[in-house]
Amino acid sequence: MTASVETLSSSPTTVKALTSSRGVEAWHVESDVVPLIAVSFIFEGGSAHDPQDKPGVAQMLARLLDEGAGEYDSDAFQERLAARAIELSFNAGNDAIGGSLKTLVKHADEAFELLRLALVEPRFDKDAIERVRAQTIAGLRYQQNDPGVMATRRFFEEGFANHPYGLPTSGTPESVAAITRDDLIAMHRAMIARGRVKIAVVGAISSDNLSMLLDRVFGALPEAKPLSIIETVGLEKIGSRIVVDLDVPQSVIRFGTPGIAWRDPGFIPAYVLNHIYGGGSFTSRLFQEVREKRGLAYSVGTSLVSYRAASMTWGYTATKNERVVECLDVIADEMMRLKDEGPSDEELQKAKDYLIGSYALGFDTSTKIAHTLAQIAFEGLGIDYIGRRNALVAAVTQADIGKAAERIFGDGKMLTVIAGRPTGL
Fold it and tell me: What does 200-242 look like in DSSP terms, one character per residue?
């Protein structure tokens, strides 16, 4: 069996675009440094396609895929994984159901067979469903006392009201209690399909051997049927300050402004801008102004959030109830100062130098490389993105930063959710 391979030499690692004889596509980095194989895969879909009255189906599905498959019940399946030190896990987010596999080369056949069983023949045994259901509900009830979880959940409810992104991805105790085995089977049939998956494989395996294993696993999946379209949405209620009343001495704050998606040409300038504003852990303006100069909070930061149908700039902090207004004023003032004046040339250069220099740290293990490649493929950024990324960062100018600030910061208004009992609002 011969794989069709296209090699891209512009990346720091040699990434091959492989197509198996049955048409399964993957990105492959062959490396014999250690006798390991790491696989990362992402299926288009996710919790945005949960039934509206039953949020939590996709996450419950992801938790059940390795709870028994084929002829093996949950205990037997886990024992086979453990006996050969095979690491297999699944996860679900708004836009995808993904997973990863790591195995020694000598156990590759067994590892890929267990992956095939989990994807193609999950059992959804009643006892496994009820155990996972109970664990999930217990976790959700525990989180009802967590200010951070409550603030985050309310932020999404308000920011994406009447949209799938506004529903809790883990569900609620009530919705999880209502999920049936048929719901899980229907979600599995809709999501886990050929033509909807991006795959990256890193390790000591040849293209031909990998092609055979990919055919065995992913070639056995049914062909994908069209998913419902998730309507593009912007962050709502910008300018609002919403309080979740909790009797705690310190308020937890979540704040957000519009964002720029990873697939957008303006993402890299926005990424550099975010590093300067709140993304740099100890060097960002928010860290310096909120924590170092005023002692308002122990931690504060921002990040760019990119979904299939939405994007935002998302921030977090926590402070004493009586200092919430001061903290929010500092956050907003620094936002507008950065937009109006821009960073200094030195500040911009330091940000770019850090982002360029630290990028390689995300590729120090096979698993990290596979995960990053799968994510790049999922976003449609191109197989050469790793090779191009640092040049894109280096090319960011003050004018680019200004355009990004205009799109993200706008008039300085934010959607803000505070969990606690802030005074002075």
Answer: EEEES--HHHHHHHHHHHGGGSPBP-PPPPPPP-PPP-TT-EE
Distance from chain centroid for Cα 246? 29
Tokens 């959804």 found at? 124
**CA–CA dist 196, 95 (Å, integer):** 12
Q: Provide the token pair at 257.
A: 């402004």
- pTM, entire model: 0.93
Lookup: tokens for 309: 């149908």
Element (H, E) at 140: helix 126-143
Rounded-to-integer distance, Cα 41 and Cα 99, Å: 6
Q: What angle do helix axes 74-83 and 108-120 make, rounded to 10 degrees?
A: 160
Closest CA to 100 of 233, 223, 217, 200: 200
Contacting residues for 186 by C-beta, under 8 A, at least 6 apart? none
Question: What is the DSSP-derived secondary structure letter of residue 69?
Answer: B
CA–CA gap between residue 386 and residue 6 (Å, rounded): 16
Task: Give yes or no for a contact between 260 and 406, defined as CB atoms under 8 angstroms apart.
Answer: no
- For residues 77 and 114, the answer to whether their CB atoms sit within 8 Å is yes
> Given its phi and psi angles, is residue 157 left (phi above 0), alpha (psi -120 to 50 degrees) or beta?
alpha
pLDDT, tens digit, 9 for 90 and up, residues 301-340: 999 999 999 999 999 999 999 999 999 999 999 999 999 9
